[in-house]
């Protein structure tokens, strides 16, 4: 679009005004070529779009302007092309990453949760093994009529009582709560599948606690069987952690 | 009468498969060892009872723990809902319970 000119020649070459965007870019490119612009603008007063000019010298001027503006146009084209390429690369990378996430859906291995699992199992094992040993000791001492053994039996029964082991159960349940929170906080669908197994273990610990509270003691066989049974449950959770560690998705 | 725990193991697996049906193939890797653990507990209960070293409350607690653990593992699989998991656990322990009652004479089993 050629603007009517009544004032001195504009620094913007009329012949390159093919659209608003191109016009702006060419302003930046050709601002420093006043000699060429002057010759072009001699024809601009007619209001004719210079792209359609018929005078040979005008075409020559157009060619000169085009040639000298080639570097600027190329730079603009290059920057535009580069920007588009970078945007396309970024979109492809994002789409690829999203596709990988959606198809794999494997949770991220959490070494802290893994260590918490190990520590909690050891805590349960240590406590139940202590109760098993105390149970065996009291059973053995009960068979003795020795006064010293009777005194030792009283002490052993006191150690095996529920009151003496409340701390064990409380700390173990606290560890299980922390473990549950850590494992299930992993933002992956598969972590919700492990929640029932975790809850079953927590409920079983509570069952042992209630039995101990009711009887005020645990038979050594019960303590042993409970430890074996809980080890199976911890093992299932360990398999889950190791599956994730190996980069696989738990079933 | 001595309990044939090998046969009990097969019966337990058959009872679980009967409940899980097509889902057994999915869960068998994790459920298999848990079934073996239940059999081992059953054997230990038989031995402990013969020596009078297990109270009825402790037996009930062990039974509940075993069923809960088994159901928890089954329910961890998307293919098995909580109801089916509990039914499978009940079916498994019923086989063990019957074996303890008939084979070891444990009244509270």
Description:
The complex is a heterodimer of chains A (251) and B (109). With 251 residues, chain A is mainly α. Chain A has helices at 20-30, 34-41, 56-68, 70-104, 111-142, 147-160, 166-184, 191-215, 220-245. Chain A is rod-shaped. Helices cover 79% and strands 0% of the residues of chain B. Chain B has helices spanning 5-20, 24-50, 56-75, 82-104. The longest helix of chain B has 27 residues, at 24-50. Chain A binds chain B through residues 139, 193-201, 203-204, 207-208, 210-211, 214-215, 218-222, 224-226, 228-229, 232-233, 235-236, 239, 251, and chain B through 26, 29-30, 33-34, 37, 40-41, 44-45, 48, 51, 53-55, 57-58, 61-62, 64-66, 68-69, 71-73, 75-78, 82, 85.
* Count of individual helical segments of chain B: 4
Number of domains of chain A: 2
Oligomer state equals heterodimer
What is the tally of beta strands of chain B? 0
Q: Largest interface, with Cβ-Cβ < 8 Å?
A: A-B, 34 and 33 residues
Number of strands of chain A: 0
Number of domains of chain B: 1
Q: How far is it from the N-terminal to the C-terminal residue of chain B, by CA?
A: 16 Å
Count the DSSP helices of chain A: 9
Major beta sheet summary of chain B: none
Structural category of chain B is mainly alpha
Report the mean per-residue pLDDT of chain A as an integer.
Answer: 76
The percent range for strand residues of chain A is under 5%
Helical amount of chain A: over 70%
CA gyration radius of chain B, whole angstroms: 14 Å
Q: What is the CA-atom radius of gyration of chain A, in angstroms?
A: 42 Å
Task: Kindly report the average pLDDT value of chain B.
Answer: 90
In helices, the fraction of residues of chain B equals over 70%
Which segments of chain B are poorly predicted (pLDDT under 50) over 5 or more consecutive residues? none
Tell me what portion of residues of chain B adopts beta-strand conformation.
under 5%
Distance between the termini of chain A: 68 Å
